[in-house]
## 1
Amino acid sequence: MDVIEQEIRLSFRYPVHFTRGAFASSNPILRDLLTPPAPDARARALVVVDSGVDAAHPSLRQAIAGYFAAHQATLALAGPVVVLPGGEQVKNDRAHLDVLLDAVHAAALCRHSYLVAVGGGALLDVAGFAAATAHRGIRLVRVPTTVLAQDDSAVGVKNGINAFGKKNYLGTFAAPFAVVNDFAFLSTLSDRDWRGGLSEAVKAGLIRDAAFFDFLETHAAALRSRDAEAMEQVVRRSAALHLQHIATCGDPFELGSSRPLDFGHWAAHRLEQLTEHRMRHGEAVAVGIALDSTYSWLAGHLPEASWRRIINLIGALGLAVYAPLLGDTLQAPDAERSVLRGLAEFQEHLGGRLTIMMLEDIGRPFDVHDIRTDLMLRSIETLQRLDAKGVSRTAQKAS
């Protein structure tokens, strides 16, 4: 056999900044990040903004223009600020991606130019997909504006849009050039979005850091009541845990069959899909975490005391552990709208052997490759009974 085998090793490095007022002219972070391609040139950037952020911050576009004007010696806006819808609607309609790609093309961005994306996780996913595919990769700077994006999705390497009724069916693995977490944007979030992002922090504690889970328990009341200082600590620690996992666990681009950072997500993605995304991602993740934690307990892996701590924390943060659609699954486990069909979709998305993360204890995850339908249905029944007793029902209206 005549064969040449070549190994290519790539190293990725990107900073995650924590700040306030990223577009204040006195804040040097963006100025220093957007480096010109040559000593006598200016760094060219196109900015795309989430429409919800644009509405909540009416002076934002003016501030962006002012920032580039204040630093015009080294920075240049390559075109008008692009405003796209936020939330899953921007990922469900490819026309929004085309609008952004048209703007990138019209601005004549190159691989040494920048796309600066300001918004929630869905908008950042679309911007990341556009940046990764235009010229096979232009530099992406994420400025996440929600708890969920700042503590989880924006610091990772995944981008994508929804297609064929499936979440993130089209996408790329591409590291950002940089992430700028601006805490000031969190102040205008709705209570629903403030709480929703905390589910990913709970997940990070469960699979990476029991001490962080303890911190969330201790500060649950403060977090629910919108204590900014407590939230900033949570965002920073959760982001750090996600980054550590991506960098140190050997599979940042998900070439294998295990996906620890998606603990609880097989059910969450299915719930989002079945509710046509009326149920927000963070809300669905909270239910998914509760479901898989309950399964872990009923299967004899997770101590009951630890299970109760998990359920109680989710409720204390103002999130639900149950959604009515789970009750539909109890009535017809094999039906088209059964949540259990999310297991097959989860396996298809990653490929290989079905691999679902469960818990031996808080901070001690492990993988299973078979899910017992009867035990999963018992888990749903358990959560249904808890819901009937009044455990937080934040997700009820969405489902």
Note: The two ends are 58 Å apart (CA to CA).
## 2
Amino acid sequence: MPESVQAVRGMNDILPPDSAKWGFFERRCRELFERHGYDEIRTPVLEHTKLFTRGIGEATDVVEKQMYTFLDRKERSLSMRPEMTASCVRAYIEHAIGKQEPVTRWYYIGPMFRYEQPQAGRYRQFHQIGVECFGVAEPTVEAEQIAMLVRLYDGLGVPALSVLVNSVGGAEDRPRYRAALLAYLEPRAAELCGDCQRRLSTNPLRVLDCKTDAGSPVLSGAPRVLDHLTEASRARFDAACQSLADLGVAFEIDPRLVRGLDYYTGTVFEIQSAAPALGSQSALVGGGRYDELVEAMGGPATPAVGFALGVERGILALPGSAESFLTAPDLFLAAIGEAARRRALVLAHALRAAGLRIELEHRSVGVRAQLRRADKLHARASLVLGDDELTSGRGKLRDMGSGEEREIALASLASELTRDR
């Protein structure tokens, strides 16, 4: 007997009824984002590795430790995308979108890949939904995005939300802050983990995002980015905070929030939930401005801001059992005999064309077994087709909830079921 093949560790199947909950979550995101003017973009799963080393930053954990990278048959280095912003920027530049429209709003849904330790809500193939807005420098955009996310999670019933914001500054702020941070960290290097000791010479800001040293006295006492912003950068951040207040969004300024990717500039944000299912990993979504990335990748200077939310973590936080998200059939057709099964097939085809969800039994099984299956599927109604029903053209429509029955013409099934919805 051949050895069975299983899924790759950290890359999971999503089966019904879980897929129904996923579908509901994705639909709610699509509907909300499209109301805010975002259109869907789809990019390849595979990209040239240099896109991510240049776009995300060589000193990030994502590039250093987590990417799935390999050589293709022509010895070109390719990577499975670990995130989508770099891919969106590549598409924006490659297709000269900036010359076609002054403002571009995209959203995306898809799988990402990182080689990290699987845990609850974090996997090696994981899924993100996010948005990117190109062409708007005004800080009202990031406030609008944060408010949109709060509306999303509030509307889904996700409990105990908290909104954290900070500014990591831009090109004019980084040199001063880097000098202050190094002056503080270098004398304390021995108290840092090995990765952070190495980062001191490459990108000391990444030390603040370290998961190993999180909560250590060294990091808690580090200089704050906000104290080293120019007046212009501070004014932009203050304007973003004022816009959040105008929109009625409660938030907290977290001076340690820097996000894990090098391309962020200016405002960064994170939304967390204390939903018990999330455990100690409370983050649902993170994002911020990346006003310098498009130009750094070879495009025109273009302000930009966006976010990515983890679908797996959103599903964990979303209340309700997976079964409750399944769509129940409007009608279960139970057929007795070959002639009835043929008639049920044609009838189901017509009812589905009318927009109804119909389930029928193709197998030759008894009517009791069919009705038990109808009950298990939580069908709204059932109808038994036998010789008498075929002859008269009428049948008894049974409400599966109340057990009540009423006789109707088979020809009027579509209108009856639609009316009862």
Note: The CA atoms of residues 123 and 400 lie 40 Å apart.
